[in-house]
Amino acid sequence: MTLPAQLQNLRIPLIGSPLFIISNPDLVIAQCKAGIIGSFPALNAREKDGDPILLEAWLTRINEELDRYNQANPDTPAAPYAVNQIVHRSNTRLERDIEICVKHKVPVWITSLGARVEVNEAAHSVGGITLHDVINDRFAHKAIEKGADGLIAVAAGAGGHAGALSPLALVQEIRAWFDGPLFLSGSIATGDALLAAQAMGADGGYAGSAFIATEEANAEDRYKQMIVESGASDIVYSDLFTGVWGNYLKPSIAAAGMDPENLERSDPSKMNFGESREKPKSWKEIWGSGQGIGAVKEVVPAAKLVDRIAGEYFAAFERLSGQVARYR
Ligand SMILES: Cc1cc2nc3c(=O)[nH]c(=O)nc-3n(C[C@H](O)[C@H](O)[C@H](O)COP(=O)(O)O)c2cc1C
């Protein structure tokens, strides 16, 4: 199946994934100008009571800056941006945020934690497309039945709320029946891994944790540094902190006075993804990350990270192309 217009003409087939708190207009604009889809969760735009709606201001700025950039660079235009909606009953802002995204004609909508027909219809009403993230084949079927245009397969090793399935198994099962847009999420931090996602059958990759260690990301320097210094064995999979299984940096859990090797199980009835996520104060500095961060060696501007991934991607492509004759 041909990809929708929004997903064609990227510099490399990569989406910078939405990161709670961390993704902001600076990061999104830098990602899009560098040629990959940049995204942010709508809930990251939080105004104080009585202040103008921040999501409006963010979308106005992103649309204007990218329009200006495209006029100045007609041969190498920016990639489109995406807004992530958390479709969970605790998100009391969902309806308002959908209206704002319709008003600003958001081109790509990423939905998480729930598939709903009306969100897909809202995106389609302004020519947008929706990508729904799923951790297994059953949820993938549900999302497509509800009208999503494409899927993000969130496999084991992804940062934030992650699945438990091997990316090989997950992509294989979804591709057995779905030929629409499919992006793979989980530990993609190099161009080699991005090409591997395509070799498996996905159309592209979805990378989050590597972008935490960028200058634009809204994260504390200590968090960025911990990403730089950590590797796969520093990550623990737990449902304690949000009620949903996810991957976290062990050193941040230890710093909060807990033993990352012996974490309790959570109470799922306490799940809250609304504006006021009540958490013990000591959890504020428990930091999410996927397993792919061994590839992250320094904090750099987002454009430089995209340059590195793009360089590796094309080098990996050539390396493998050179091997085709040997196996044919
Ligand atoms: C700190 C952090 C926050 C995240 N917040 C969100 C979020 O608000 N919405 C969402 O759909 N995904 C969120 N994710 C998941 C990512 O979108 C994506 O699936 C993941 O980062 C990909 O794996 P990687 O980090 O190994 O690249 C988050 C991930 C991290 C690490």
UniProtKB/TrEMBL annotation:
Keyword set, alphabetical order: Flavoprotein, FMN, Monooxygenase, Oxidoreductase
Keyword Flavoprotein among record annotations: yes
The keyword Membrane appears for this protein: no
GO molecular function: nitronate monooxygenase activity
Family annotation (InterPro entries): Aldolase_TIM (IPR013785), NMO (IPR004136)
Listed Gene3D superfamilies: Aldolase class I
Family: Belongs to the nitronate monooxygenase family. NMO class I subfamily.
Full protein name: Nitronate monooxygenase
